[in-house]
């Protein structure tokens, strides 16, 4: 099978099926897009830390931390309760909350998608507060514990220092007072170290980066438009693949001959003519083929006898070919006589017999012996119809002259009315006017 034949059998013969299956997913996508409610996207920008990340990996880590906190169901649930909203926090966290970093900066854009503008704005405001609270206070407990421990030790050292100072005042000079003075010095040294630690913790807490909202209370809310273009492209590609697969499956399970040329090759016969050429040309071509093969009668047989609409088309074609105007008598030029051209015409008895066109319904018994058959191709021929045609040829033993292409594009010419020749009072056709020199 050549590529051209494959194209005709699979694509051209099933173009309607391919078109329907191609447009079906497109219609489904359009219907789903129309039925999908509008979505609103609210976003706020959060500075996750005061220091600039040293690499894209560090910036991606900050963005991932914000996303991980924002998509925690407990954080989302607390944010929804704070905003007075209802819904499934797990679904919202998995499908409607996103976070993306802006370049290699510590800025992360937190976004929430909701069905209404008010819900999207309220939820992103409440969720951003929850994210900031967790980021700023998640490791605060360790600092508070260390600060309390240093403050307790510093208070103990100062208390011991005060006690030693009072004992030194009431103790007489001597070895005891010297030992108390040494303990006093150690207590002062310990208090100084603890005070330095407390100052260092305070400075570290002050220098620690805190996450902040860049523009609190001013979330950016936009309506989300569905990505119709890519969806339509994918739907069109899917539909085209389905259409081609279905056409190939249909052609495999029920093969058809897609055109008149293919039918002619299957029957090993030529394509004689096409009704697109007009009734006169078609009749002349068929008559010439009939005369060359010695058949005064041509029987036109539809290629699909089981198809209801093909037999009426063939019958109408037979009537159209039968009603065509008869050929005018042939004129013969004679030698010049007295300076005038003399002409003569060949009588009807010398003209070749006109070909009789018939179908199985109008064929007369006396015309059967000299009949030849022409297959009229109207629509794609199934394998079963091809076998029926071969059985008909074997049963009737009529010679097959060829195939006549009568597809839909050419039926307009076949259906055109043929003007009847003018007739005289007795009903006989009027002969054309002859000049005075005609014989």
UniProtKB/TrEMBL annotation:
InterPro entries, per the entry: Bact_polysacc_biosynth/exp
* Region: Disordered, residue numbers: 329-350, 409-439
- Coiled-coil ranges from the UniProt annotation: 147-204
**Domain of life assignment:** Bacteria
Keyword list (alphabetical) reads:
Coiled coil
Q: Does the keyword Glycoprotein apply?
A: no
This one is known as: Polysaccharide chain length determinant N-terminal domain-containing protein
Q: Which organism is it from?
A: Pedococcus sp. KACC 23699
């Amino acid at each position: 099978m050549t590529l051209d034949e494959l194209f005709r059998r699979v694509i051209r013969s099933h173009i309607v099926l391919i078109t329907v299956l191609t447009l079906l997913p497109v219609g489904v996508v359009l219907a789903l897009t129309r039925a999908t409610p509008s979505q609103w996207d609210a976003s706020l920008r959060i500075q996750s830390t005061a220091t600039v990340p040293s690499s894209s990996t560090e910036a991606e880590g900050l963005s991932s931390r914000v996303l991980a906190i924002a998509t925690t169901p407990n954080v989302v649930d607390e944010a929804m309760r704070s905003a007075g909203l209802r819904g499934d926090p797990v679904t919202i966290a998995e499908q409607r909350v996103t976070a993306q970093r802006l370049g290699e900066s510590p800025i992360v854009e937190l976004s929430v998608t909701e069905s209404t503008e008010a819900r999207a704005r309220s939820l992103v405001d409440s969720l951003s507060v929850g994210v900031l609270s967790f980021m700023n206070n998640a490791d605060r407990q360790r600092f508070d514990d260390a600060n309390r421990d240093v403050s307790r030790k510093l208070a103990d050292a100062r208390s011991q220092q005060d006690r030693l100072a009072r004992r030194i005042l009431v103790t007489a000079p001597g070895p005891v007072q010297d030992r108390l003075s040494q303990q006093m010095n150690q207590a002062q040294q310990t208090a100084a170290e603890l005070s330095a630690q407390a100052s260092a913790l305070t400075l570290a807490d002050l220098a620690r980066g805190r996450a902040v909202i860049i523009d609190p209370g001013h979330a950016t809310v936009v309506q989300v438009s569905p990505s119709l273009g890519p969806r339509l492209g994918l739907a069109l590609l899917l539909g085209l693949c389905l259409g081609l697969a279905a056409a190939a499956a249909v052609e495999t399970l029920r093969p058809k001959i897609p055109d008149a040329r293919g039918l002619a090759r299957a029957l090993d016969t030529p394509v004689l003519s096409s009704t697109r050429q007009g009734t006169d040309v078609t009749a002349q071509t068929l008559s010439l083929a009939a005369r060359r093969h010695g058949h005064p009668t041509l029987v036109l047989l539809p290629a699909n006898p089981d198809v209801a609409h093909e037999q009426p088309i063939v019958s109408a074609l037979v009537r159209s070919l039968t009603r065509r105007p008869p050929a005018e008598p042939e004129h013969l030029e004679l030698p010049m006589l007295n300076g005038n051209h003399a002409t003569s015409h060949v009588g009807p008895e010398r003209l070749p017999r006109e070909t009789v066109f018939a179908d199985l319904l109008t064929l007369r018994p006396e015309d059967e012996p000299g009949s030849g058959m022409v297959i009229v191709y109207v629509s794609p021929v199934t394998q079963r119809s091809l076998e029926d045609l071969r059985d008909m040829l074997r049963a009737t033993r009529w010679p097959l002259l060829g195939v006549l292409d009568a597809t839909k594009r050419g039926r307009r010419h076949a259906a055109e009315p043929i003007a009847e020749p003018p007739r005289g009072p007795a009903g006989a056709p009027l002969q054309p006017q002859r000049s005075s020199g005609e014989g």
